[in-house]
Each structure stands twice: as C-alpha cells, then as structure tokens.
Write a structure and sequence with these properties.
Blueprint: H1 9-16, H2 20-40, H3 50-66, H4 74-91, H5 95-99, H6 111-117
Length: 118
C-alpha cells in the first residue's frame, strides 16, 4: 500500500472495511495504547523502537480480534498511532503544570475554629 499519511479518517476507515462502531472501538483501543506509550517514550511514533511498534501492532490486533473486529494492517495502525500519540501528548499533563499548583502549608485563619482551640 502506498503511503497513507495524508489520507482522511473516512478514507482510511474505508480501506479497513470496519463499520462505524468497529472504527470507534479501534480509535479507543489505539488512544489507550498511545496514552501508555507517551508515558514510556516521550517521542513520536517514528521515534519508537521497532520492537515496540511491532508489539503494539500485535496488541491492537489482538484486542480487535477479542471483540470480533477484523485485524488491521501495519500501515493503518501507523497512520492512527501518529495521530493518537500527538493527541495523547497534547492532553497529557506536564510536570510544570502539576508543579505550578500550590498547596497551602496550613489552613487559613478561621476565627471560630482558632478561638475555640485557644
């Protein structure tokens, strides 16, 4: 198959032969995989080690088969993972965002509480 990197989602779905519910499930499975991958590899799909890509292809197709959804080829999974990893990286909280939240060291002054303890 020729490169499908610039093909639309509808066109790729047509290539897979998956119906709408199957296609949505494929998207959810691959997004879950992408979220886990970005925790381990803060890179792009093409930057992942080949063995990790191959293991992912097998996991995705096994998950699809377990739901009686036809397996998809490596080009389709690559097309999807490029997008899913970018999305997972975009929605992932960054360390600086979580570090910017400050927690008060003590409770603020409460006259009722503080005078009663007094």
């Amino acid at each position: 198959m020729a490169s499908i990197s610039k093909v639309s989602s509808d066109e790729v779905q047509a290539l897979t032969g998956l119906n709408n519910p199957q296609w949505k499930r494929f998207f959810r499975i691959t997004l879950a995989e992408a979220k886990e991958l970005v925790k381990l590899y803060p890179t792009s799909w093409v930057g992942l080690p080949y063995m990790e890509q191959e293991a992912l292809w097998e996991r995705v197709n096994e998950a699809l088969r377990n739901e009686n959804i036809p397996a998809v080829d490596e080009n389709i999974i690559s097309w999807r993972m490029i997008r899913a990893i970018d999305y997972a990286k975009a929605i992932r909280p960054t360390a600086s965002a979580s570090a910017s939240v400050t927690v008060p060291r003590s409770l603020p002054y409460d006259p009722v509480r503080d005078l009663a303890q007094g």
